[in-house]
Amino acid sequence: MRRFAVRNGINHPMRLSVADLVEMYHNCKEQARHYMAQSPWLRKTFLNDKMNVAIDQGNSEEANRIKGMLKAEAQRKTWQDIQRVTKPRGMLSVTRVEVERQDGVVTEYINKEEIEKAVMEELTSRFGRAGSAPICQGVLYDLLGTYADTEAAVQILEGTFTPPTDADGPTLIILEEIARIWQLMGEGEVSIVISQEDYQYYWRKVKESTSSSLSGLHFGHYKAIGWDDELSNILARKFP
Questions:
Q1: Dihedral sign, Cα of residue 108, residue 110, residue 114, residue 115
Q2: Where are the alpha helices (DSSP H) in 87-195?
Q3: CB neighbours of 72 closer than 8 A, spacing ≥ 6?
Q4: Residues 157, 137 contacting (CB under 8 angstroms)
Q5: pTM across the whole model
Q6: pLDDT tens-digit series, residues 65-75
Q7: Assuming Cys at both sites, which of 55, 91, 141, 225 could form a disulfide with 231, CB separation 3.0 to 4.6 Å?
Q8: What's the pLDDT tens digit per position in 38-69?
């Protein structure tokens, strides 16, 4: 026993007092409980033992709570295994980008700072292209204003607006469509109310891996809610 103790890091075991042994015993028990709670297999054994103790003591509430934990962890493990096999690999980090300049020369960037700058320039240009539309500049923009809350905006909805002479063809088509849709809405033919059925029809089909907003709700939350009538009805009322 002395050699066994020394091999396990207990030096001079024969010099230990009874109080030291009791303290070390309790420390070992606490450490064992910690490992049992962390290790997957030991945790399952640990929780089963706790559930059996609760059953023996007649504590059905505690036994049901532990039983629910075991079931939830088993289901989580099952789905993790399924996703590991069926889910495609996620996107890797960007290690290089190619940028084509106005003169047709393609430049490759591999440095972190250069990659970030090139990506930022591309995204800034891409998400700012709406500002270059004819409706967002010139005489038409002056008539509509930033928030389109002017008399000209009302005239567009009513179909009585006379566009500027420099307005291009696609812009005129858009203005005509705005007036047409507004008229249909006034006649009740176009519904802007999202019903429970509308919500469920859309969200049950979306891909759960789609990026969501900064609200903290993942697409999976909305998709799961789509299978519950009451929650779908509540959220459908919230969207408009």
A1: positive
A2: 112-127, 138-144, 151-158, 169-186
A3: none
A4: no
A5: 0.36
A6: 999 988 888 88
A7: 225
A8: 677 777 888 888 899 999 999 999 999 999 98
